[in-house]
Automatic annotation (TrEMBL), chains A, B:
BP terms from Gene Ontology: L-proline catabolic process to L-glutamate
Protein name, UniProt field: Phenylacetic acid degradation protein paaN
Organism, scientific name: Streptomyces qinglanensis
Keywords, comma-separated and alphabetical: NAD, Oxidoreductase
Single Gene Ontology MF annotation: L-glutamate gamma-semialdehyde dehydrogenase activity
CC annotations in GO: cytoplasmic side of plasma membrane
Length: 568, 568
């Protein structure tokens, strides 16, 4: 699927146009589709080993970005959550390098603009194809920066992230071709000659876009903004999280290669690496050249960006308080198993992991009769225990804690309330230095004022709260207040009552949030599929955008109209 | 085209679906189209007189809004720029009334959401049809609040504004139906059964939208945001400019009638009138219930909104410095006449009126040889004089100055530089109290530092600056800096050089601005046509949106997804 050196843009369009068309169909139809295989086997024999070897070769070396203006200093900031320091040095971005880099990045814009939406889409799809071909290497890079277990790093960091990137390319293309390139406008004037004007419409990128990456999902959360900005005619400056540089550095290098081969300026994409504590995102974000920002991370900085980077269109995914309303079920074991998996996957370090489980104090009804609040919580704890009872399986699901802050929060959890499920340390035989912990469940009572402080804020990591509420109505009210004040990336509900389901929907319509109802089996509240599911609603405080929709791309370019009197 | 009392929503859809389809075609094709006739004659015999009579009947009376929660106080704030006080009293909005009103407005949202995009569009088109039927009355209302001359108030305040409103309805509808309402998602799982999920996608409005109207174009600048918000499922609180309440108050009353007749809550649309100086927009804008804001007005408050109303999606049209680059022409008289008209229309009180005319100090080339800077400026002054030489014609073009600030700026203009064209007072025999002034042209030298202070800020009203620049290259550089630092709603250029035209385009691509090249005859830089031209680019400091495009509507609603395991 990739194309060789010296490729013309026409060849790139020939190669990728069918994929673009299929992706356009997918975002409109929203049925299942992916061009990126999920299973490692699909990448060929020996691919996993080659990926590992490529990753190992990068470790302990300098990551060169030939041609990019740099400061001359190097920084190595990555330590695998599995133990080893990566020892990869990146060019450190400082103010002087930024001053040199931004004009150079802008210099590539006119040719990139002239290329048009279709060529830009084809170049983006070529970048994605080359990333896809190196999925096993990306899997290692994501695993050893995020702490995701191998299979998750492979899938979420590889094909699923690539899907999200391609989805953004498709939305970007669709949005840019809504307006024709050229039109003859003719207004009747009664008996006089009509007014005749020739109008040309050109999608023009805003300038330089800044991508501020996150630690936990550098590619999955980074690709949508990266490709949406590039495909709409912007240059993209990538500022990765200092502990998750490699996946985005690889992306930048591949993008620079493809751009140069296709005859564009490689500096349309550049890397801004920093030492931990440099805080360059804050300086970059308010530079006048930066016109688009994509950010995933904590709420405080996200809100700062929204208020201060007024010269840019700012897209943020921040923190929320994901909530599950448990009213009743006709598949009790299915519900418990499903929730246990969602609480455990990647040690609850997903922005979509449920945090607050709202359960009526009087208990719930199930297909085999009523279950009290204490029983439900104990049964859920048992389901988690069962899921993670085998250490090999536990390691494969949990991955490693991404940083000390998560561990500290987990260790502080017992102080918040009665522990229904204690966290357990799991040994990882392959990586003995990894911090692997099973999730904790803490019982709280919604009617006790001191509980509020615990469950009303995000507690990122493997801690969830089984919150006893007076009734399902109270749960709905608490959900509404949570969505309004804190937001949520995900909401789930379990109920056999169509009326309760309807009320849940109403709350999620009123304070826009994405709702999963009665999930059992292999579909989980914390997972969304590109081309079909929206990731977040963009309508509550957890995020101001969704990955991905028309709104996610429409502010990244402007349509510039040039009017001329029509030639006679 | 309007539909009677007791109409079902199905009837509304039947009535208006063909118009919606045609409007959807128009925004995609961008050729000339309007369903709203421009000529007063099209509204039937006696329509103008009936409109005048309806307006006269409103003057001096209370404007009732049956059913809307109000404070009990009344305010009358409108004085026609043509002299007479309107004496129309509106319910004054105060904090208590807001506290009562906002929950009531939210109360209508669920049914409005459930109605779906098509019914909402049909209701909006019915509102527009009733507004259209009362165009002569709106013409009077716009004329006697904005100071526009009658024909302009009729056309820009009537059919052209209605076009813009319908365009917004079409964009809103198109955006909401990009995602199907329901889809079956089926993911293959190798030899196991596929995962099957039913997904429902519901466009959900954000909540209550706030429209902050302006004095000069209450309907033209107000309708796009009003209809975009309503059509995407929001309630709309209309806060008109205290000196231009009536056009939007009529809109609110008509909308409330149509909503109620169609079975929706009339309070989905409400009026917030205030006494001059109440400043309620600032309080309303940061209310948590307000999720969308549309604003037209000065830059200072627009920027305040963008920074502070973080809970809302904020659309602003602020001030810019519109610029014309005059390099050369092969139709000198055509250029002069075209510019003279644009400088004169509505006394230069359009956000699209050219302000800075950049002319090389060494002069320009024309089809009949070179013309020096002084000659070009003198010839332009003469063209304006000629255009406005006849008082009747002058009155028909100029209208009246909208307020004292505009008059003060005009009177201060001679202090800024050498006056090339002095403003002249025109008597309006019909309205002797109207302040009617012809435009002034002031000569400035771009190389003199004191000139910069004059031409680098917006000087709203009938003052333009003939700025002598070193060369066309200097003009392009000045244009670039102006666009970057101040922005512009419009840029125009006159050149016979394809290279200069190309450079002008590049500047307008780099710092997104809408460009008109070599306009002569009846097409003017300060006029845009709905369904074809974009109003502003949304990509420079003059405005953060364009009226209207996909981006103008995409943030006004969120798509809420509800996922369920598929039934077997």
């Amino acid at each position: 699927m990739t194309t060789g050196i010296g490729t013309t843009t026409a060849q790139l369009v020939d190669t990728h146009r069918p994929t673009l068309d299929r992706a356009l169909e997918a975002i409109a139809g929203r049925e299942f589709w992916t061009p990126h295989p999920e299973h490692p086997k699909a990448y060929g024999e020996g691919a996993a080993e080659q990926g590992k070897a490529a990753f190992d070769a990068l470790c302990g070396s300098r990551f060169e970005l030939p041609g990019q203006p740099v400061s001359g200093e190097w920084v190595a900031t990555e330590v695998s959550p599995y133990g080893p320091e990566l020892g990869i040095s990146y060019p450190r971005m400082d103010e002087g390098a930024v001053d040199a880099l931004l004009p150079v990045m802008r210099g590539g814009l006119p040719a990139w603009r002239k290329a048009g939406a279709e060529v830009r889409a084809a170049v983006c799809l070529e970048i994605l194809a080359r990333i896809s071909a190196r999925t096993p290497e990306f899997a290692q890079a994501v695993m050893h920066t995020s702490g995701q277990a191998f299979m998750m790093a492979f899938q979420a960091g590889g094909p699923h992230a690539q899907d999200r990137g391609m989805e953004a390319v498709a939305y970007a293309y669709a949005e840019q071709v809504r307006t024709p390139a050229r039109v003859s406008w003719e207004k009747p004037q009664g008996k006089r000659d009509p007014l005749r004007v020739t109008k040309e419409f050109t999608p023009a990128g805003r300038g330089v876009a800044l991508l501020i990456g996150c630690n936990t999902f550098p590619t999955w959360n980074g690709f949508p903004g990266f490709f949406a900005s590039l495909a709409t005619g912007n240059a993209v400056l990538v500022k990765p999280h200092p502990r998750a540089v490699l996946p985005l550095a690889l992306t930048v290098r591949i993008a620079r290669e493809v751009l140069a081969e296709a005859g564009f300026d490689a500096d349309l994409v550049a890397l801004a690496a920093e030492a931990e504590g440099d805080g360059i995102a804050k300086d970059l974000a308010v530079r006048p050249e930066i016109r688009v920002i994509d950010y995933t991370g904590g709420s405080a900085f996200g809100e700062w960006l929204e208020s201060h980077a007024r010269q840019a269109r700012v897209h943020t995914e921040k923190a929320g308080v994901n909530t599950v309303v448990i009213d009743s079920t006709d598949d009790y074991q299915g519900m418990l198993a499903n929730l246990a998996f969602s609480l455990s996957l990647y040690s609850g370090q997903m922005c979509t992991t449920p945090q607050n489980l709202l359960i009526p104090a009087a208990g719930i009804t199930t297909e085999s009769g009523p279950r009290g609040y204490d029983e439900v919580v104990a049964d859920l704890a048992a389901a988690v225990d069962k899921l993670l009872g085998d250490d090999a399986r536990a390691n494969a699901l949990l991955g490693a804690l991404v940083n000390e802050q998560v561990r500290a929060r987990l260790e502080a959890a017992p102080s918040l309330g009665e522990v229904a499920l204690a966290s357990r340390t799991v040994q990882n035989p392959e990586f003995p230095d990894a911090t692997v912990r099973t999730p904790a469940i803490v019982k709280l009572d919604a009617t006790e004022p001191e509980s509020e402080g615990a469950y009303q804020d995000e507690c990122f990591g493997p801690v969830s709260f089984a919150v006893a509420v007076g009734s399902t109505e109270d749960a709905l009210e608490l959900l509404r207040n949570t969505l309004r004040s804190k937001g949520a990336m995900t909401v789930a509900g379990y109920t056999t009552s169509s009326e309760v389901a309807r009320q849940l929907e109403e709350v999620c319509f009123d304070e826009p949030a994405q709702l999963s109802l009665n999930l059992t089996g292999g579909v989980y509240v914390n997972q969304t599929a590109a081309f079909s599911d929206f990731h977040g609603s963009g309508g509550n405080p957890a995020a101001n955008c969704t990955l991905c929709d028309g709104d996610f791309v429409s502010g990244r370019f402007r349509v510039v109209e040039v009017r001329r009197m029509a030639e006679d």
